Amino acid sequence: MGRPRKIGLDYFPKDVDFWDDYKIMDLLNEYGPFGICIYDIILCQVYKNGYYLEVPIDKLVSQIIRIIGNRWIKDKSLVLQVIQYCADIGLIDHALLQQSVITSVGIQRRYSEVTVRNKVDKSKYWLLEEEESQAALKSAHSESVSAAETGVFVTETKVNAEVIPQSKVKESKVKESKVKESKVCMSAFSIPCKNGTYVLPREDYDEFTHTYPEMDVDKSLDKLRSYLTANPHKQGCVKAAKAYVDMWLCEDDQMGKYRKERSVKPAYDLREYEDTGMLGPEWDDYL
């Protein structure tokens, strides 16, 4: 019986330009070394369990206080504020935090690099796109020892082109592309993300307009796009963009922003003025 794969890490890499990260600068500016200490503890707790930590937030707060010590922390709410701020600036995924799950794109990217050869199940709460996950694997292969140095001979396997006709392959790809286009009917709205651009599908746009009927959804979305363009450090990953859009619209709706202008056409009934004496005899032909 094979030994079960280890999910948690014994160590995780820390970039030498850690303190040059704008998010870390924001956290340091807002809460000082205290905020950095809390974030560092969160990273250790996450990587000890894998690439995410599923735990009630109040329990996580208690763990952090126990590690730092009651001497230095007098108020639990301050720890909660730091955790929430980390989500606001993108150090923690905001949408998953609402589900008591601690992770982020950056956390998962580092985890993917460390466990590049470890086939760990990464289907739950995984935020990285497939291309990003494969990038670490390709990098590891490029730095690996060559077959000549290890004395291992690789036999090339030739594929008979007649077995898989090129025309059928191309036809299959065209059909697959058409299916994807039919399933994702894109609207004109898109927002910049760290790993690309998120384009809002038409069915999701219709869902938002139905959910927020009193609000001008287009104006709110345009404001979101301008905000993320002007603040790149606030951008998330494409996979979590829909949840971020929904949260943005929900907050605007609760604050009463971008209400639709109701155009009411006036209805005139000249008979209403007949008894007031406001209409002269010249209007008799119209009454």
Explain what the structure shows.
The chain has 287 residues and is mainly alpha-helical. Among the domains are: 18-134; 183-254, no CATH class. It has helices at 22-49, 57-68, 76-88, 94-97, 105-114, 130-142, 147-150, 166-183, 202-211, 217-230, 241-254; strands at residues 53-54, 101-102, 186-193, 196-201. A two-stranded antiparallel sheet has the order 1-2. Strands 3-4 form a two-stranded antiparallel ribbon. It is globular and about 55 Å long.
Question: Using DSSP, what is the number of strands?
Answer: 4
Report low-confidence residues grouped into runs of 5 or more: 136-164, 177-187
SSE class: mainly alpha
Shape: globular
Spatial arrangement of strands, main beta sheet: 1-2
Bin the helical content: 40-55%
List keywords for this structure.
287 residues; mainly alpha; two-stranded antiparallel ribbon; 11 helices; 6% strand
